[in-house]
Amino acid sequence: MNCLKLTITLLFASTMSLFAQDSNILWQKTYYETSNYERLEEILQTSDMGYMMGGNKILYSGGPNYNMRITKLDAQGQIDWENLYGDLEFLKDIKQTSDQGYIFGGYKVINENYITSYRVYKVNETGATLWNKTIGGERWDELSSIEQTNDGGYILGGYSYSNISGDKTEDSRGESDYWIIKLDAAGNMEWQKTIGGSQFDLLKKIAQTSDNGYIVAGTSDSPISGEKTENTRGGIDYWILKLDSMGNIQWQKTLGGNSDDRLADMIVTSEGGYLLTGSSKSNISGEKSENSEGSNDYWIVKLNSIGDIEWQNTIGGADEDIAASIKQTLDNGYLIGGHSKSDISGKKTESSQGGEDYWIVKLNTNGSIAWQNTIGGDKPDILSSVCENTDGSIILGGSSNSGISGDKNVGQSSITESYWIINHAATLDIQDLTTQSKITIFPNPVQSLLTIETSGDLIEMAEIYDINGRLISEFKNIENHSSIDLSRLKSGIYFIKFANSAQTIMKKIIKD
């Protein structure tokens, strides 16, 4: 099915994109184009309708060095402020807190043997440090996920190779284990849990649930051992655990097929279930219900509140497709973001621009594909984070090696790696059946009466949607050179769908 793509073109400052190659790009912008490698990990919309970017400045001259970098943007993508934190520290996750500040963390290299520990910062709304913590044992401990809890404290999730030492109170189960730490509002440790099997268990995401417990998700290749109650399905699997408020296991699920299935992200859904996304090479086997399309594919799994599978979808082309981020949307669908090297093949409907491209897929509530879009330049472009804005548009954040090429028309022509941020239009799942008639609407912008001229048959139905896809009003049996009264609409952006038995056509209108 071909989906009609809708766009709202916004004109910003001269540093913004004025003419996007992809018609769904509202604006695009690059940041930190230097000789360093700049790698974005997370972008989120803030309470003031701006954005927070969390990433890393990576310098290899004279040996590797890393700094956490957080950057506050306004609603148009202009930098409000930015700060660097630490030395040999790498950011993995950032969240806004209830006091309008931020909690963020990752890991810190603490000695010449590159032993790592959890590193956490709490900052105020301008980035000034309120407190910071280094937490670890004698080996490698790396924080992956952080979230403020309902009591004003924080839950930390990552993985640890350490035995009892330093801050670690339990021995390793074999190799790496999930290591979960609860902090109070001042950053003091309240409790910790080591959960794992005899092999490698790598936690990726942790979130609080409505019962004040936690859902934990990551990957595992452990057999039955330690806390692991199910064997691997054949390679690396998704491993999901539901914990109570003190970190005790209530249930767990191992999900996978006969090859490697690597979880990337997890969310708690609006009805209290869970949505998992990652990348899979498995064919039909284990819990996997569809064959691989060729190599790694996006593998999305919807669980109910007790961990049973409700639906799943394998989405990819013939080459590498690596999922990174998932969000639930305003219409209770889902947005999956990652990167793809695939040309048109499998379920992929657009070819690569060159190397890896940003690839976003919108799913309906039942997991079926509503639409998808491939965006990229001539070199690797790695999407790491997606978020939906309050107006329904979508922010895509990642790191790009491309110069001006393909869909990318900002930035330098040759660069190592820099942030690439795209504001993508809200897109309605409306099927474009044919274009047998030409429909003209005027004036546009419109204040009251919108005139419609058509070269074809009677328009049986005209439906008006707001920017979030909600049906606002409808009109029937519209003849050539008719007018419809829009005076009761509020000012803003709308879409009008014209339909008869032969075709469906969509137009954008602006109501003054």
What do these coordinates show?
With 512 residues, this protein is mainly β. It contains no helices and 35 strands. The chain has strands at residues 25-31, 37-45, 51-59, 65-73, 79-85, 89-96, 102-109, 116-123, 129-135, 141-148, 154-160, 177-183, 189-195, 201-208, 214-220, 237-243, 249-255, 261-268, 274-280, 297-303, 309-315, 321-328, 334-340, 357-363, 369-375, 381-388, 394-400, 418-424, 439-442, 449-454, 459-466, 471-478, 482-485, 492-499, 504-511. The two termini are 34 Å apart.
Number of strands: 35
Summed up, the domain count is 3
Q: What Rg do the Cα atoms give?
A: 24 Å
Instruction: Report strand order across the widest sheet.
Output: 1-28-27-26
Net shape: globular
Number of helices: 0
Strand percentage: over 45%
Mean pLDDT: 89
Low-confidence stretches: 1-20, 428-436
Structural class: mainly beta
Separation, N- and C-terminal Cα atoms: 34 Å
